Fold each of these.
Amino acid sequence: EPEVTQTPSHQVTQMGQEVILRCVPISNHLYFYWYRQILGQKVEFLVSFYNNEISEKSEIFDDQFSVERPDGSNFTLKIRSTKLEDSAMYFCASRELPGELFFGEGSRLTVL
Amino acid sequence: AQSVTQLGSHVSVSEGALVLLRCNYSSSVPPYLFWYVQYPNQGLQLLLKYTTGATLVKGINGFEAEFKKSETSFHLTKPSAHMSDAAEYFCAVSSTGTASKLTFGTGTRLQVTL
């Protein structure tokens, strides 16, 4: 069964460092998303991506964040200069049609 | 704008008892509604969804939910809880637009006791 895959599963980084989280969406999907979940809190929308551009982003998604689909299969989230409050589980998701999102297992980011 | 309210951040039931997790939504357009389950240290797994058609939808693991437009609700139920149902459950709503995102509720942690 097709699935969304994310790497790394866990990354520990120092505050101020750049982090890239990688995702391989399901191959025939056209819409891609990043969500995050701070420990113990709800899942929050960060950004959606369609046709090689951002279609919507939340207030959380400030200038420190960027997304890219560099090679037609990967979908990356970059955090330019990490802060302590960026520590969270980051979920990638994709879908083909309006409706159900398929989520990856998540990448846990710990900023020290 | 859309929003989801899940009443009760923690619900505890006995094994074999009815599970009822409440979800109310707000949407200015006809919604798509979802329930996701998250087991400890895992990702989000879709339990069931309502898009169009039958308002009572059945999902995996014996769960079902009923879309009630008049009450703006999409409560999740299961007739008989099992220990393996212990997890965090998230209700979510999206619009029917092509680029629509999911908006999640704050989640309900289900505890199942012997």
Note: DSSP finds no helices and twelve strands in chain B.
Amino acid sequence: KNQVEQSPQSLIILEGKNCTLQCNYTVSPFSNLRWYKQDTGRGPVSLTIMTFSENTKSNGRYTATLDADTKQSSLHITASQLSDSASYICVVTRSNDYKLSFGAGTTVTVRA
Amino acid sequence: SAVISQKPSRDICQRGTSLTIQCQVDSQVTMMFWYRQQPGQSLTLIATANQGSEATYESGFVIDKFPISRPNLTFSTLTVSNMSPEDSSIYLCSVAPRLAGVEEQFFGPGTRLTVL
């Protein structure tokens, strides 16, 4: 069973609307959680990274939250743009060996 | 940040042949990683390449199939040997420098491999 589960698998939103992506993890012991954006045919690009003590972090129109107690994270996209169409990947790092666990990603399609 | 380039960006190969993928980083890094991303799947770590020592392979990946070279701190190659259609994937190079006390992870643009 994957230790990082993302939902939904995909979603379609209209330009200008907001959306929220979910990430639940069981990785332990926890070091940090990252959200990546992967455009089609490109490598993943880091959006945010949060450690145990951080609850929220923003990067422009992207805001990530982390609840380390419930092992849940979300990525909120505000006022979506066509360029936000991509796969968003949640990645959790283990603190004992720094191994990364990848979620399968949420594919976001923004339509005009 | 670290800027990573990969060559080739994509290739179509025949079954039974081999392809070598190059990864170049714009700064010296201790550890480089090779990942595979099969269609619609998340990234899977193939191996960790350290300069001056043999690569460390993850379960399910072997050196004969995926030989790796790491001649210096800015360059690495991954060879996909004796290819079959199941090897069709995106192969990504990654580095993890420690910046401001946090271990960042940067990815290359990937090499899209199609095996016929």
Note: The interface with chain B takes residues 2, 4, 32, 34, 36, 41-46, 49, 51, 89, 91, 93, 98-100, 102-105 of chain A (CB under 8 Å).
